[in-house]
Amino acid sequence: MTTISTPLPTTRQRIRTTLSRLWRPYRSVPLLGWLLAALVSVGLEQLVGLPLARTLGMSKIPALFGADVALSKPALIPGVVLFLSLIYILPIGIVARFTAPFTNKVAAKLVSYPLIITAVIHLLLIYAVLAIWCDISDYRVLVARLAMIAIILTLSLNVVNGYMGEFSCSHPGFMALGAYVASVFTLVLFVSENQFGEALLPPGLGPFIFPLTLILGGVVAAVGALLVAIPSFRTRGDYLAIISLAFMFIVKSMFENLEIVGGARGISNQPNYASLPVVFVWTVLAIWIINNFVRSTMGKALNAVRDGELAANAMTVDTRKTKMAAFLFAAFWAGVAGGLFAHVLRYINPDSFGIRKLAEVLAMVYFGGLNSVTGSIVGAVGLTLISEALRPLEIYKWIIIPMMLILIMIFRPTGLIAFTEFNVERLFHPKDKASEGAEDATA
Amino acid sequence: MEFFLQNLINALQWGSFYALIAVGYSMVYGVLLLFNFAHGDVFMVGAYIGFFVSSSLLALDIFGGLALPTGVSLGLVLVLTLIISMFLNSFVGMLVERIGYRPLRAAPRASAAITGLMIGIILETGNLAILGPQRLAFPELIQTATINFAGVSVTNKKILIVGVSILLTLALDQFVRRTKWGMAMRAMAYDYVVVPLMGISINTIALMTFALGSSLAAAAGILYGVAYPVLDPNMGILFGWKAFVAAILGGRGSILGAGLAGFLLGFIEIFVATIFPSTMRNLIAFGIILVILIFRPHGFFGEPYSAQMRL
Lengths: 443, 311
Known about the structure:
The structure holds two protein chains of two kinds. Chain A has helices at about 10-25, 30-55, 65-70, 75-100, 100-110, 115-135, 140-165, 170-190, 205-230, 240-255, 275-295, 295-305, 310-315, 320-345, 355-370, 375-390, 395-410, 425-430, 435-440; strands spanning about 265-270, 345-350.
């Protein structure tokens, strides 16, 4: 005879069941619903954020979700928590949950339109959230732009280190090429009174020509990448790591010696063309194009080269051409990111593109996850926000962040979200039961 | 000619630091096929350990009772400092292996490189946090004496530095070639999978590789302190990356190759700095390395291999 006794649930299990019960209604919230909720939340912050922050003892709205305030003045932590829950967590939770039926219906309707329209509507919503959130302070604008540039950079490095499986160290070099080329062009063409003399074109044209200068910077970076690619892709192995490292030092040293672009002092006073919408558009473009690239035949060939070069060769993949194309492509985007970076900070010097930058970009790629567009976005935004939020800790920040990364590497060696596909169509789908059933029926 | 010889001696001194660090890189790279990006900072830690050991030895004045001439007792302090710091720093290397590399044995190689990089940053920042940003002055352990030889002036420091580094590199090379431990290391470089089946523990060999490399890095740090008595927490970064370049230039698994490449890098840098403006140093040095790698992609003494062997 057997007795069946159900063991009492442990605390951990109990917490888990409570959490999953709490989370259940949110499973059916589509992206549209989350965006709507976020819009309400940032709108609320815009309207009542300042008085609320004042009553809770803060001098202004906490810039980065309160982390900076909480770390510099621990006495204010309860206030920060209250502020966060009143402004962000509660409104988002309530709105997302109770508009879910409505947003699902809208999402279902949107899915039937061409993808481009759905995508544009979502992007407009994302931009609206971002713009309202950034409207609070200039610091937020800066952080948001830096985070978006980090996304471009991380994605482009992920193409080489993740999708191609090589170890490239030259991204700061490509970035420097793009940054200097774009800066010199905008300064020569549109800015008077600097070392390059009078402006050649009316400054009003600047914002329209700016994309061209960025592309030019990217192209120059890609040409520089040829210098790395030609010797290093003849054989497989770690030559790319070493040659690209040498290339990075060469580029940095070259700009240090070019007096025409300021030498070690660098160049400053770039016009303020890289505003929030401009950077946003470029980031969306980069995500779109890179995502399409890695999902294309070329991207799959790249994965094949990574997993077995001989086998890929036998399967008619032109391995050398594939690797070259991917590397130049990645370098192009790194150059574009560099151009944007120069126009966001409006000051660059060769030291901004050194070993530190390399460590930063590598950390973002491996933090987010190899071979994954979502991972790169998470890694870039996450690490930028964390490093800005930990700023009050001063140098201890550079102990905490590396420790965090070591732990991530130990427990998830390929990064947080690795080896996933970024399926945009799937992202926009309604999430409720009815539409899921419909989807199954059509499938 | 005199000008050439004078610079040759400077280059030998400058190259000895690279050589000693590159050998450590080359050990890890040759045996485990991993990049040890923390190695430059292990060199920095070695220099600081040397600073503390020598300062405390001087403060304790342990040879005071023997009534030796100052030069001799200082020399004994230097020898003791070298031995103790090399011993202590080997534990730093083993710690790096234990924390950053052992948990990642099954992971892609690049992930281990990232942990190494991060441990390096922690070492730099930890140093900055504990000791503060001011630079430390390494105690003067050798009274400088200049020897004039055929119009070339050589200080005894330079002779010591070059001598010790060549001696250590050769000793390590002999260790790897002649001893049983060295044979195990070479076997591991040859085939990562079969070696454990022969009853050789990967973990032990890995720890030993890191320990040996780190103790040589400590020697490099102390010699650096003797030559340029200013220590700062970031001194390891550039040295580390350049020694990494030298290690690969030497060829995988070749200790003498790494040492030679380190000296070569020193030569290139010193001669570029004397002929061109010194700001061009990195530009031309790395340009030359790029050209060398184009013609000899496997380094001087390396053999072609596939990186996939390790995975």
